[in-house]
Amino acid sequence: MNLSFVNQAPDSPWATYLSQVDRVLPYLGSLARWSETLKRPKRALIVDIPIELDNGTVSHFEGYRVQHNLSRGPGKGGVRFHPDVTLEEVMALSAWMTVKCAAVNLPYGGAKGGVRVEPKSLSLKELEKLTRRYTSEIGLIIGPHSDIPAPDVNTNPQIMAWMMDTYSMNVGATATGVVTGKPIELGGSLGRVKATGRGVFVVGRETARRMNVSIDGARVAVQGFGNVGSSAAELFVGSGAKLVAVQDHSGTVHNPNGLDLAGLLAEVAAHGGIGGFKGGDVIGNEDFWDVETDILIPAALESVITRERARRIKTKMVLEGANGPTTPDGDLILGERGIMVVPDVIANAGGVTVSYFEWVQDFSSFFWSEDEINVRLDKIMVDAFKRIWEIGEQHGIPLRTAAFVVACTRVLQAREKRGLYP
């Protein structure tokens, strides 16, 4: 695939991913001969999405579905609706899904989708039309055995239900396994909504134990207070931690003695953001990065921990709830400062793990209890993290590089065993 048209700015998501792969090459041994596989998406689809708006006019939107690597199984990855979505961003996110699935040893490859749209500008009916037309356009390459979308930024179980229904209508049979993150009534899995946040907590707990950092009394700051950030915050607070700062699209609040989590959740439910919360001091968005913490959880968008912010951060651990929140320069500076970075490809893998459980349950038409889901999730996350930690210690490398070593080795072993066709 010719990538000359892709934005190669140093801090672009795709450039970030490529730099992460380059750091792994010395640890791949004979598999390094296949490494170019990791730097080229297998397939990228760009689609036009025309819909008739409520006012009778026709509007066009651009959508993408990228399958980065399918060596270990069907593609897996979310769909985001956001005005800043680009092809190179979706490429990077699909590549990180390849690494993430392999890091926790799920039988998936990596994929991702997106539509460049401000979903808040659309009515519910317009949003449904957009979703259904997008699904029809990418129906060429998605399917229960080929590529399974899921929720991501600004998408939710209702959008997954529309996607599943559209695909099913087009193939003439109900295909619940074509997407995950669906409503429970349509074959969704218990525990899926909070799975990513739960995975962040489990990996954070395991890291803290190895660092001799007590969760009880630990100061936690969360950037992004959607499903991931709020669920992780809930579990940390439930284990005795203090939530000292929260930032979302509506503002930043800070209280060194701990913010009231129930109050924050109520504020979000009532007003869609934390900006009007009265239980803490309102501070500038940039000041968030100066708050003293023990655990910092970026759980919003990519590339927020830049070189400049990495120099200012005062924490013991950065726990990446978002995909690609730390730029390569930021990563280097955090490492030089002795701040532990727990990378996205393991820290936020809880969501795709329970998506895997959902997919398996859909095929068998046999569903597990939420307790069973959580026990299985915890075991997979703990075992995966243990392996990555061991590789990190063995080679004296950061956890991100260790996670990529584990994941890329698995991907390239599959590539080598499968060979080239024809």
Q: Helix/strand/pairing class, anyone?
A: alpha/beta
What is the percentage of strand-forming residues? 15-25%
CATH class of one domain: Alpha Beta
Number of strands: 12
Q: Quick one: overall form?
A: globular
Query: Uncertain spans, ≥5 residues at pLDDT below 50?
Result: none
Task: Going across the biggest sheet, name each strand in turn.
Answer: 9-8-7-6-10-11-12
Number of DSSP helices? 13
Mean pLDDT: 95
Helix content: 40-55%
- Radius of gyration, in Å, reads 21 Å
Largest sheet: 7 strands, mixed
Offer a few descriptive terms.
Rossmann fold, 5-stranded mixed β-sheet, 7-stranded mixed β-sheet, 422 residues
Please give a structural write-up.
With 422 residues, this protein is α/β, with parallel strands linked by helices. Among the domains are: 41-176, Leucine Dehydrogenase, chain A, domain 1 (Rossmann fold, 3-Layer(aba) Sandwich), CATH 3.40.50.10860; 195-347, Rossmann fold, CATH 3.40.50.720. It contains 13 helices and 12 strands. The protein has helices at 13-24, 87-103, 124-138, 157-171, 195-211, 227-238, 261-271, 307-312, 328-336, 344-347, 350-364, 370-395, 399-418; strands spanning 43-52, 58-69, 75-82, 109-116, 147-151, 219-223, 242-248, 251-254, 281-283, 295-298, 317-319, 340-342. The strands form 2 sheets. A 7-stranded mixed beta sheet has the order 9-8-7-6-10-11-12, with helices on both faces. The two termini are 18 Å apart.
